[in-house]
């Protein structure tokens, strides 16, 4: 599951990087490094994940706190661009997916998590932290990089997940 989440987020990040290359003066973008699943049949624990050595201690850029709030750690260029990437993914997926936790060394990012209201996304049996989607829309502070990408100011919206056709109808009680 971790591999699917990190590698899917990596694909979004590649698209984001391609779009930012067309924007003058945007500069470097974070790169989510690949996470590989390996099979070790002779080991007591036959499956493990491996990734590139980042060469230093990880810094937290965007994290989910214990109280469930999403927080950016600082105002460095990499943190601001991680926040812009979050905004871009949220907008690009119509409010259905958000890359939440991100940490790394320099521009190399790892340990990403997602929030989604899409049941079955990446094989998840249920939606994953959907309250973070609403919280992000309500609390995200656009920065300089959001502006030069032309991202829209977020307003709390209800994500477009699948709902029962009867949702929203008045229920009638019979006696």
TrEMBL record:
GO terms for cellular component: nucleus. Keywords: Disulfide bond, Immunoglobulin domain, Kinase, Serine/threonine-protein kinase, Transferase. Residues 1-154 form the Alpha-type protein kinase domain. The keyword Transferase applies. GO terms for biological process: cardiac muscle cell development. InterPro entries: a-kinase_dom, Kinase-like_dom_sf. GO terms for molecular function: ATP binding; protein serine/threonine kinase activity. This is Alpha-protein kinase 3.
């Amino acid at each position: 599951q971790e591999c699917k989440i990190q590698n899917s987020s990596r694909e979004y990040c590649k698209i984001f990087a391609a779009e930012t290359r067309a924007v003058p003066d945007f500069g470097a973008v974070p790169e989510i490094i690949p996470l590989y699943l390996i099979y070790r049949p002779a080991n007591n624990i036959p499956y493990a994940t491996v990734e590139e050595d980042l060469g230093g201690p990880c810094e937290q850029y965007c994290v989910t706190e214990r109280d469930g709030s999403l927080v950016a750690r600082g105002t460095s260029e990499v943190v601001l661009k991680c926040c812009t990437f979050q905004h871009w993914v949220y907008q690009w997926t119509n409010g259905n997916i958000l890359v939440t936790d991100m940490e790394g060394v320099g521009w190399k990012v790892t340990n990403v998590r997602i929030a989604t209201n899409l049941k079955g996304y990446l094989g998840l049996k249920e939606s994953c932290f959907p309250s973070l989607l609403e919280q992000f829309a309500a609390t995200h502070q656009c920065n300089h990089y959001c502006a030069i990408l032309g991202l829209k100011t977020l307003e709390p919206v209800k994500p477009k997940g699948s709902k029962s056709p009867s949702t929203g109808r008045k229920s009638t009680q019979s006696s």
